[in-house]
Amino acid sequence: MTEVLAGRRRLGRGLEALLGPTREDAERDGSLVELAIGDIRPNPFQPRHDVDLAALDELKASIRQAGLLQPIVVRPMSPGGGFELIAGERRLRACQALGWERIPAVKREVDDRTALTLALIENLQRDDLSPVDEARGYERLIAEFRLAQQDVADAVGRDRSTVANALRLLKLPAGVLAMLHEGALSVGHARALLALDDPATVTALAREAVGQGLSVREVEDRVRGGRAPVRRPRLKRGVGHAPEVRRVEDALRRRLGTDVRVTLRAKGKGQIHIAFYSNDDLARVLELVLGAPFDG
After folding, report:
1. Average pLDDT, integer, range 168-177
2. Do 104 and 217 share a domain, yes or no?
3. Residue 121 and residue 11 in one domain
4. Do residues 95 and 197 both lie within one domain?
5. Does 198 lie in the same domain as 117?
6. Can you tell me the distance from the alpha carbon of 165 to that of 170, in angstroms, rounded to the nearest whole number?
7. Residues 162, 281: contact at Cβ < 8 Å?
8. 264 lies in which domain range?
9. Tally of helices (H runs) and strands (E runs) in the chain
10. Residue 173 in domain
């Protein structure tokens, strides 16, 4: 756990411990073992509840063609023997689907807190978690191991404000969390809804936002009780660029924890619009963008 909790500057080494060496390196240093897939139990600390089936199919195709380049990581279990998965759930599922009976693995001796932290790190670094799963992972670290928010932030390589804002999302009603988890509602919309106290009102406005395609600004206006602004047509983005633009927007939303819109213009030019909802939220976004607290 020392490497994982050492903070952001050493997160790369923590990830190396998490993912294990490449198959070639593991073979070279003698740490690679072949385990029966039937002897490997699922990771009970896995924070991700849904698996992207399309991505899993892509991974299966890659493994079928090139083999498993990155061993999974397990820890020995006792009593009863066998092993428990620490990292590599998608790799394990793909190999199972391909009919493999044995799989290359690297063994690690870790405690429960380390297993949960490493599972969180693996998913966060690969953007595999929904905002809700991420928040529940933080909540579990705090509840089960009595960690402070700063301890959690250091462990997973995030800013404390990012952890705090993620945890605030869990105050939303279950129905709204479901919309957020499924991607129907953005983190920006969810944060705007946190200003309301009545669960029924929050849920109704969330459904309205999803059903009518309201922007974050329009949801904020409804939260304040004002009149919805006139909807202005956005510049039409080139059809060939739309998927790439959406991927950029999604990546920025996950990184900044707020609503982001990218407007693409001619000749590769464009604008990035980043939303914030209070002075504290602006300071948080600036810290993420600048890599240091903003003192201006």
Report:
1. 93
2. no
3. yes
4. no
5. no
6. 10
7. no
8. 242-290
9. 14, 7
10. no
**The predicted structure's pLDDT at residue 229:** 47
Q: Pick from 96, 3, 99: which is nearest to 42 by CA?
A: 96
Give the H or E element holding residue 281: helix 279-290
The verdict on residue 154 lying in a domain is: no
CATH of the domain at 91: 3.90.1530.10
Last residue of a domain, one of 166, 194, 223: 223
Please list the residues that pair with 104 across neighbouring strands. Answer: 34
Number of domains in the chain: 3
Considering the domain architecture, whether residues 254 and 215 belong to the same structural domain is answered as no
10 Å Cβ neighbour count for 276? 17
DSSP state of 277: -
Q: Which two tokens stand for residue 288?
A: 């993420």
Tokens of 24: 């070639």
Confirm if 98 and 56 have CB atoms less than 8 A apart. no
Q: How close are the terminal C-alpha atoms of the chain, in Å?
A: 36
32, β-bridge pairs: 106
Whether residue 89 lies in the annotated active site: yes
- Our CA dihedral for 225, 227, 232, 233, rounded to 10 degrees, sits at 70
**CB half-sphere exposure, 175, CA atoms < 13 A:** 12
Domain contains 152? no
- Which one from 3, 27, 34, 89 is the annotated catalytic residue? 89
Domain membership of residue 162 (yes or no) is no
Beta strand residue intervals within the chain, DSSP E: 32-36, 40-41, 72-76, 83-87, 102-107, 260-264, 270-274
How many Cα atoms within 13 Å fall on the side-chain side of residue 249? 20
What pLDDT digit, counting tens, does each position of 279-291 carry?
A: 777 878 888 888 7
Q: Do residues 211 and 104 share a domain?
A: no
pTM for the complete prediction?
A: 0.56
Mean pLDDT lowest among 8-22, 40-54, 121-135, 144-158: 8-22
**Which residues, including other chains, have CB under 8 Å from residue 164's CB and lie 6 or more apart?**
149
